[in-house]
Amino acid sequence: MIAIYPGAEIEREPDPGPAPSLPPDVLEVVYAYLRAVGETDLAAGQAFIEAVARDPEQLRGLYEDVVKMGLADWPDDQATEPDSGIETTAKAVCARCAHWTPDCINPPGGLGRCTIAAPASKRPGSLWPWPDAEIHCTRFQEITPC
């Protein structure tokens, strides 16, 4: 670094030390957020992860953002109604859900993808595009036709 005027002193910021480590499930949410916003720079991603790990308020803000984006639900200890994985909802069709994206190779007939990785999406019979492929899903959000 070069001083702009003679006699200027530049002091380096003190190193904040290593950031506390985040639990794997929290890291998964952070990675999903970084992918969703298109962040591909590894150094910027690591700086973001460290900032979130150091500041609980920033972590809470991140949770609010990913919930609004439909990428995740609140952590179990902060959820108002935790998902037990037990189906208590009426049957749903993945292709009619706001969280479902079609298969890019075979949109009319291939398995799609659940953007929030709902527990029901991991069970056999889910993610099909057909109207008779019904499953039980607690995270189902029906798309309203235009």
How do the strands and helices of this protein lay out in sequence?
Layout: H1 24-36, H2 42-54, H3 56-69, E1 91-93, E2 100-101, E3 113-114, E4 134-136
Antiparallel strand pairs: 1-4, 2-3
Helix pairs in contact: 1-3, 2-3
Instruction: Give me the secondary-structure category.
Output: alpha+beta
Largest sheet: 2 strands, antiparallel
Helix-strand pattern, N to C?
A: HHHEEEE
Strand order of the largest sheet: 1-4
Distance between the termini: 57 Å
The number of helical runs is: 3
Helix content: 25-40%
Question: Unreliable segments (pLDDT under 50, ≥5 consecutive)?
Answer: 77-88
Beta-strand segment tally: 4
Shape: elongated
Overall average pLDDT: 77
The Rg value, from CA coordinates, equals: 21 Å
Proportion of residues in extended strands: 5-15%
Description:
By secondary structure, the chain is α+β, with helices and mostly antiparallel strands. The chain contains 3 helices and 4 strands; from the N terminus they run H-H-H-E-E-E-E. The chain has a two-stranded antiparallel ribbon. Strands 2-3 form a two-stranded antiparallel sheet. Helix 1 packs across helix 3 and helix 2 crosses helix 3. The radius of gyration is 21 Å and the shape is elongated. The protein starts with 23 loop residues before the first helix and ends in a 10-residue tail after the last strand. About 8% of the residues have low confidence.
